[in-house]
Each structure stands twice: as C-alpha cells, then as structure tokens.
Amino acid sequence: MLELICPLCQQPLLSGSRQWVCANGHSYDQARQGYLNLLLVQHKKSRQPGDTPTMLACRQAFLDAGHYQPVSDRIGELLGAGGPHQLLDMGCGEGYYTARLQQQLPGCAIGGMDISKDAIIKACRRGREIQWLVGSTARLPVADASLDAALSVFSPWSWEECLRCLKPGGQLLLVGPHGDHLLALREQLYDSIHPTPELIKALPEGLEIVNDQTLRYALDLTPTDLASLIGMTPHGFRSSPERQRTVVETGLTGLEVAMRMVLLQRS
C-alpha cells in the first residue's frame, strides 16, 4: 500500500478496519465502495470539482471500447521498465489507465487519485486491489520520497509535489496532447484552431528528461464512439452542438491520435 499522510497535518495515516487515523487524532472513514476521501473542504475550488458525470460516462464508454489501449500499453512499457514498487496515478478519472497498470505491473502497489468523487466511485468498480483516493494533485496525500513512479494523463500536476513525493531515481510520466492530436476533429468543430500548450514549459531543478516520444496512430470511429470522444473532452461544451451533431452524422476521415509522452527522473 502507498504511504498516506493526513491532508490536515501531514502526519502518517494508519489504517484500521474502516478508518484511517494520524497521530494527531484526525480520522478519515473508508467509504463502502472502497475509496478514501482525503480532499478537505477548504481545498475545493467548487462544490463538485473535476469532470462532470456526463464527461465521465463518455470517457468510460470510449476507453472501455479500447480506442486508447495503445496509449495504455505504451504507458505500461515506459513505467514498467523502471520496476516500480509504489506508483500513483494522479488525476486517474474513472480508473482505466490505473486498472490496466495494475494488470501490467502485478508486483507494484498502485494508487489512483482524482479530485472528483464521482470519478473515484466509478474507478472502485475496476478493482479493490488498487488504493483509490479522492484528493488534489496540488496536495498529494502521500509521504515524502515514498513513490517510485507517478503518472499524469491529461491531468494537472505540481512540480513541487512530484519532487517531494518521488524517491531519488523515481520517475514521473507526463502524457498530453501533441499539436496534431485529434486535429481533424478540432478543424470540424471550430473556425480556428488554437495552438496546443507545451506539455513542459520549464523543467525544474532535480528532474531530467530520460525519454520524450510521441505516439501516433489512426482512429476509425463509429458515430457512437465519435459522440463519446467529443463528450469526454472539453470540446463537448466548448464547441457548438450543431457542429458536434454534423461531425457525428457525417463521420470523420484522417482522425489521428498524437500523444506526447515525457518520462522524467528525479536526481
């Protein structure tokens, strides 16, 4: 299991039958679904942070159909090469990549964390072997220098928190969109395409890039899967419903996945 800390005082958390307690007496109940909520009310920016239930349902349907399995396979290859024993998937959503990692790295203690309680409730259905947590990537509820690896797929992360939690030699894998990612879709949904932000703007001291690659492959989607793809992304609420319907009805050619994967290592 991961070495958890109290989100209030940062003391180690010890588990009982259904409750986790720190030395200062702060306690956290484990939900009947199996997750542990370590997101304090004062650390929320909204009443229900994270993705909406509609986005989560669309993402689960799309991912479970296997369209991003090559992405999951490459993640497992990159992280598995380091032989991690303690790994945290930060911003795990409904747990697709986390559960796949648990299968790919059977000897690794894996945690999946998301700021959305709805997402984690869905993730719990993927397996009780994984330590499911509600928490924020801005305040990771794990002990200093306790992680061999951390993963962030299309999710916010904190350099400071990653450096704090990674062991010396520990690795951080960042997965995000290349400028070509789903370009054919974006060209149909918008009049103009905004540049894709850089995955890494400035590398902090203490981390070095050990692998930087872009995974590319074509997607050929049914109307149902195309609707799920749009609905699971911000395009679902940023673009016009009329254009979304047109894309789903007419289909798309030349749709390509282009995901940049940067593996960093702590010195």
Strand content: 25-35%
User: Distance between termini?
Assistant: 24 Å
Instruction: Please count the beta strands (DSSP E, at least 2 residues each).
Output: 11
The secondary structure category is alpha/beta
What composes the largest sheet?
A: 8 strands, mixed
Helix content: 25-40%
Task: Please state the average pLDDT score.
Answer: 95
Question: What are the main properties of this structure?
Answer:
about 270 residues; alpha/beta; eight-stranded mixed beta sheet; three-stranded antiparallel beta sheet
Describe it:
By secondary structure, the protein is α/β, with parallel strands linked by helices. The chain has 9 helices and 11 strands. The strands form 2 sheets. An 8-stranded mixed sheet has the order 4-7-6-5-8-9-11-10. The protein is globular and about 60 Å long.
Summary of the model, kept short:
This protein has 267 residues and is an alpha/beta fold.
Secondary structure layout:
Elements: E1 14-15, E2 19-21, E3 27-29, E4 36-37, H1 53-64, H2 69-80, E5 86-90, H3 96-104, E6 109-114, H4 117-124, E7 131-134, E8 147-153, H5 159-165, E9 166-177, H6 183-189, E10 207-218, H7 223-232, H8 235-238, H9 241-250, E11 256-266
Helix pairs in contact: 1-7, 2-3, 7-9
